[in-house]
Amino acid sequence: MGYVILIYDIPDDRVRHKVSERCKDYGLDRIQYSAFAGDIDRNRREELMLRLRKTLGKKDGNIRIQPVCSRDLSLAKEIIVES
Questions:
Q1: I need a labelling partner for 72 at 20 to 30 A (CA). Which of 2, 34, 58, 66 fits?
Q2: 15 domain residue, yes or no
Q3: pLDDT tens over the chain, length 83 residues
Q4: What CATH number does the domain containing 55 carry?
């Protein structure tokens, strides 16, 4: 397994919703409006990217999966302010 961050910028609401549902199907957790993260092995990561490519089709958009090593993950910081 490997930790990844998946981010996307997709203008079409319908396509953007489908992409977010695919991410959830693969066990990724939403961390921002257009960002997901979680553990996924290499084969599932490749499968997910193929499915997302098909989902995006010819619509405008950008989808990126960025692996994060455990050392860098341990250095992560987060600020959350909720009112």
A1: 34
A2: yes
A3: 899 999 999 999 999 999 999 999 999 999 999 999 999 999 999 999 999 999 999 999 999 999 999 999 899 999 989 98
A4: 3.30.70.240
For the record, the structure tokens of 75 come out as 């250095």
In this structure, which long-range contacts are made by residues 72-80, counting pairs with CB atoms below 8 Å and at least 24 apart in sequence?
73/3
1 neighbors 40 (Cβ within 8 angstroms): yes
The structure's pTM equals 0.90
Sequence-ordered alpha helix ranges (H) in 1-83: 13-25, 42-56, 70-74
Identify the domain containing residue 57 by its residue range.
2-74
